[in-house]
Amino acid sequence: MLPVIELNHISKYFGKFAAVKDLSLTVEKGEFFGFIGPNGAGKSTTMNMILSFIKQDGGTVKLFGQEMPAGNVAVKKRIGYVPSDVRFYPQLRVQDLIRYTMDFHQVKENKKEVDELCELFQVDRKKKFGDLSLGNKKKVAIVCAMIHQPELLILDEPTNGLDPLMHARLFRLMKEKQEQGVTIFLSSHNLKEVEDYCSKIAFIKNGQLIGVEDLTKMNKKVKVVTLKGRNLPVEQMEAIGAKSITQNEDEIRFLYEKDLVQLFTTLKELSNELDDITVSNRDLEEQFMSMYENKGGEW
Ligand SMILES: Nc1ncnc2c1ncn2[C@@H]1O[C@H](COP(=O)(O)OP(=O)(O)OP(=O)(O)O)[C@@H](O)[C@H]1O
Question: Whose CA, among 140, 147, 216, 249, lies 20 to 30 Å from 82?
């Protein structure tokens, strides 16, 4: 099956500044794909190239197997997009905006579907767009992105400004859509939501892709081990496979992905002043911080 998004060595320069450098990425049909990275990493620029809002300076963008921007309009009708910064004509009423969006996608007004979406996100269709709060503008953008039942949803920080109830409703809806075969490409700074919902994530930093991880496997592989006690054998830890070692008074903390039984046996041989050992799965936040602080070398 053809990938839904295929980026091959794309770059984007603003003057001499490379906002995105030689980035390649594949998103398969039905994936819930998280795109994460610090402020200014190049997430929105990448999304803007995927959507043909800006043209890449090098490389190719393929959507549903077609090179963009060839076949642009036909492909765009298969996409729903929620921008990070929602801007529509402020004088337009929400109901006119919804009608305008449906006209663009040439879909007949499906009153039931629109009613359900507006009810789910508590959208007041009589209000002027310019009079809405940030969160309510975002909810209108979400409704507009979904009313034509797109096969690909591109969401740039969609929960920014949403209250917790709306946040939960949005993710529940996206999960339902994914189960129906919709592909979701989401950028977010909320690591918890990425961890809870995404099946795969790509990390971007300084315009470059620095890792793609299958989230279902990622947390199981690397463990965080904490040792407590006196005279801990910190010098020997690296030799037994510990990574990203930090020491704090009577405590050593490190990442470990080898056999734990072997680790316990070796530790017993190395120290008889060990008071406590804890082992936990490394959560995404810890992994994210380690990548962005450039600790831990393995990234
Ligand atoms: N039109 C532009 N002209 C010049 N520089 C730009 C332009 N658009 C983006 N940039 C720069 O490109 C870099 C990447 O920006 P981008 O908005 O893609 O980052 P981001 O990862 O989406 O960040 P954030 O998480 O803060 O939204 C930034 O340094 C930004 O200042």
Answer: 216
* Lookup: tokens for 59: 């490389």
Nearest CA to ligand 1 atom 30: 40
- Our mutation pick for probing the ligand 1 site, out of 21, 43, 157, counting the most ligand atoms within 8 A of Cβ, is 43
At residue 109, the pLDDT reads 65
Q: Counting atoms of ligand 1 from 1, which one is nearest the CA of 47?
A: 18
DSSP string, 183-251: EEEEE-S-HHHHHHH-SEEEEEETTEEEEEEEHHHHHHH-EEEEEEESS--GGGTGGGT-EEEEEETTE
Give the span between the Cα atoms of 192 and 189, in whole angstroms: 9
- Dmax (CA) for the chain in angstroms is 74
State the helix-helix crossing angle for 134-146 and 111-120, rounded to 10 degrees: 150
C-alpha to C-alpha distance for 280 and 71, rounded to whole angstroms: 49
- pLDDT of 32 reads 95
The predicted model gives 235-248 an average pLDDT of 88
pLDDT confidence tier of residue 71, bands split at 50, 70 and 90: low
Strand partners, 274: 229
Q: What does the alpha-carbon distance between residue 196 and residue 188 come to, in Å, rounded to a whole number?
A: 12
pTM: 0.80
